[in-house]
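Pasting as-is:
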Amino acid sequence: MLNHRKRKAVFLSLVLLITCYLLWTQRPVTIIRAGSHAEYDPGFVLKEFASKHRKFEAYGILVDHLALTEWGRIHWYLDHKEELKKLYHIPSSDGYNITFWDIGDGFTDFVSSGDGDMYCLPPIKETEKHCVEKNMLMSVDYEQGYYEKFSFSGSEYYWITMPDGKLVRIKNAL
């Protein structure tokens, strides 16, 4: 009798876990704000990467509910790359860095931040709340003629796209 109860509890736990995972993965990603760092901070210029013949830009995208796994995040980006270009003009240069930030608990003001490690945007309305706690979900780097590189906060690996479109996972040297 006890063995039957254990099996039933394990089975129900497994069903619950699978259901929660499926519900989580089916929620759509919401882009809260997106734009160029130069748009947010006109003094922001990556002079070491830019020249009169080549343009390099850095972008920030605030999202809610990006995939849980590195693989899922990369595939979401690859599946929505054209949409980002069409709606937000990201990217619009030969070389770029796109950083995806988690919206977390929403916008806050710089003063009430616990540690002051914030990613701030220009305020849209008359409000002091235009910053989010830094929680980088994914960074995409590209230099014309090379591969796209996908990095993740706290991960000792990064991914690159090969010329044939395959993704390769590489361990960081540091």
